[in-house]
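# step 3/5: fold
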Amino acid sequence: MEKMWAGRFEKALDKQADDFNSSIHFDKKMYKQDIRGSLEHALMLCTCGIISKIEYEKIAEGLSSILEDLNSGALSFDENAEDIHMFIEAELTKRIGDYGKKLHTARSRNDQVALDLRLYMRDQVSDIISLLKELISAIKEQAEKNQDAIMPGYTHLQRAQPITFAHHLLAYAMMLIRDVTRLEDATKRMNYSPLGSCALAGTTYPTNRDMVAKNLGFDGVCMNSIDGVSDRDYCIELESAFATIMMHLSRFSEEIILWSSWEFKFVELDDSYTTGSSIMPQKKNPDMAELVRGKTGRVYGDLMATLTMLKGIPLAYNKDMQEDKEAIFDATETVIKCIQVFIPMIKTMKPIKENMYNAAGRGFINATDLADYLTKKGMPFRSAYKIVGTIVGECIKKDITLDKMTLEEYKSHSDMFENDLYEEISLESCVAKRISKGSTGYASVKEQLDYVAEFLK
């Protein structure tokens, strides 16, 4: 295929250099956005009197037929084309003749690719937000069914205080809600049209950039043409948001991996989201969760690749910027695949409440409540803390739990202890007494569930 820019050159591009330079094998993903942008650009050219109505109609008819044929598979991408823009323009010219050569009036590939990428990422982000909301809904459903499931809450991976499984799950719902709003915020800043910036300096034609921007659903136009073609902040913002999503999924995966181990056995994953061993017949491996955890580093790498690519290039467009697409495409596809497998994995996950409760019964996770018991009777908290610490030490020596200590043994430490202490340190009471907003108490968890439900509306 002859290059559109071949007029200046006496020699053809070296084959190896041509392959190295080509981006058609990955930027062909944007063919729908490229054609959509071209249709609106052609309409604007016609409206502004830059091309005639018949020229516009021929271009629109040709572009629509290319879109239809690409969608149906009747037309294949030419891997010898330099990029998706050149492929579509060459195919258009092949179909409608010289009319096709007028399409590129008052634009450059620099603003064209900037437009395509914004349109493509806007569509992809919309899909990711929908998937995140579906995952939040799956977490909410599990939380609703497990409001009474008591488990140990951890700090430093040491048993700390009793909480409900619902409360723990909802922590991830809150993270994912922030992820949704983070993507929405980034999209707002991305949603400005660069088309009409041309190569970098704008155009001498009397174009109407605002018309194109409005028709394509943008909130306005990039106000500086140099910035319009060289800005990739939105890629960095989105990749940063994707990296944060993956960090959240990775943390959740790590807990699922722990919970499904024999050492915890708090949950059992469905067979559909686990694998076996080629040599150990007893194994049930949480491979989906492990892969999500592993793919997190991949998305981090995409972010770092884009930051590094952009950090040293002068204004305006440079060929380095071709590297933005493989990174953002990979990050996008990785996030989508991870969320898609995570949703059913969470939906089908079976909590084992008895094991959670038994684990909560060990580890003295009601010690803080015992200290609070003394504090409510007037003892300074630090004094109560010291007494309870001594009692825990005694229990460890005797290999018993706090509820197995006799009242006489308690009174040897303080006369404030009475029979009602046993009710105070029961796991159910420890949870129910947590009445502060956002806590593990039953009323608070219900409030959190209502908050998530309202968000999902």
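# step 4/5: annotate
The beta strands are 150-155, 158-164, 267-268, 350-351.
# step 5/5: archive (pending)
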